[in-house]
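input
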Amino acid sequence: MDFSLLVNGYEEQHRHRNWPRQRMLHECLRAAIRNGTLAAGTRLAASRALAEELGVARNTVLYAYEQLASEGLVTSDRRGTVVASVAPEPGTAGAGAGRAARSVRGAGSGDGAGVRDVAPPSVGLSQRVRHLRAVPGPADRMGAFVPGVPALEQFPMALWRRLLERALRSMTVVQLNYGDTAGEPLLRAAIADHLRASRGVVCEASQVFITDGTQSSLDLCMRALADEGDAIWIENPGYGGAMAAARAAGLAVHGIDVDDDGMAPQAEDWLLRPPRLIYTTPSHQYPVGSVLSLRRRLALIEAARAAGALIIEDDYDSEFRHDGAPLHAMQGLAPDAPVLYLGTFSKTMFPSLRIGFVVVPAALAEPFAQMREQSAPRGRVAEQLALAEFLRSGQFLVHLRRMRRLYRQRRDALVAALEQHLGSVATVHGGSAGMHLSLRFKDARIDDVAVVEQAQEHGIAVNALSTHATRGDSEWRGLMLGYAQVPAEQMEGLVKQLAALIHLAAYAANRSGSIKTPYQHGRTSSGRSRR
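output
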């Protein structure tokens, strides 16, 4: 805390009071404690040090501290003076300068009178920001079946700590400087080797660009590869992060329906809504879980090539294939495929690592490098070097094999429980890969959002499929369930709780009327035939 800045600012505001320095200091510290600027637990500067900093006698500081102590605002011990826990004064704007930005001071106010909280102004906000979807809060990311989070307790932390320490010891003075915006060369090479061997990706290290995760990769691709107003196709239902990135880039979003075989564009889509970019999750569609068939993969590549479009292939959890042979990435299915391949270590390792990557076509590598030079962050060398060794040493593959076995067991337990307790009202989709599956309601009138809200009250975190619509509405009604964090032995009890809520919702929907639903007709909400 810069006490001289705090005190000088207070003196400027209250110069008309003509208070002695002792009282001025006391009133300043008192106000800062009461409005939260000096939070509970903050250790105040030693009296001698503060007196020297402010250019006042030490007795002036001692007087202020003694007055604060008599009011119960601070406590003293052998280690110094500490701010006590007190309730903020009514009507104050709260702690810190950031809160002051959310308040308006009334004209002629003295000691904080007239301060009131106001809503954030819309002036200055772009249309893109004003229309962003609400982001789930921390409570929505906690509980059983929360999607997108791996089994964190199974990560080999001791090994990772050793790799980080080794990376830090190996770093040179040069590596303490700003790093390569494309990423550490050792990591780029290790990722390229891994992708060629495990995913059939055709690339060199020069085509690999390190990012801060999938969202960072999406922002990069959409800013680099399309102009404002260009069309982008996103699966319907689809990933909200892709929607956010597209809108932030000013792109025109067109939702393309998903069925059991993945993204299913129609001839009219190519004719009426030709895309510049196509975003797809072919290995495990988000959120439904469908796998894009080989026939559709090849057709999409050729149609995109003919239309001059680029495909953004988000392969976010492709490493976890539970049934059937592993599928090659779209990027490597055809020579010079117009595909940008996105990957992340948030699902295979842990989310806070914040390392992802983009593999761009060879022809785009140089322009991408130039753009990254202008805008990319440079750093986090130790984490990248540690990850490179994790890949090179084979320990990453060892960890993946362990997680595949664990997730398959948990998937099997979840599917068995769902079929037993919910087979009459819902069907399971997307369990062949990844860390989540979807439960589709047979009656599309069931309110999946209401089920989610009720489940949250029981500590069960699921997503409503209907909230992932990218074009007005989607024929998918149901739930997205992540199973990576739930032990197999707990599945039965949790599914029973969830089943009770869903059966109740199904009963309510049935009583509301017996109309045919889009799902029962085999038609999408837009009237298109399902393929």
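quick obs: The mean pLDDT is 86.
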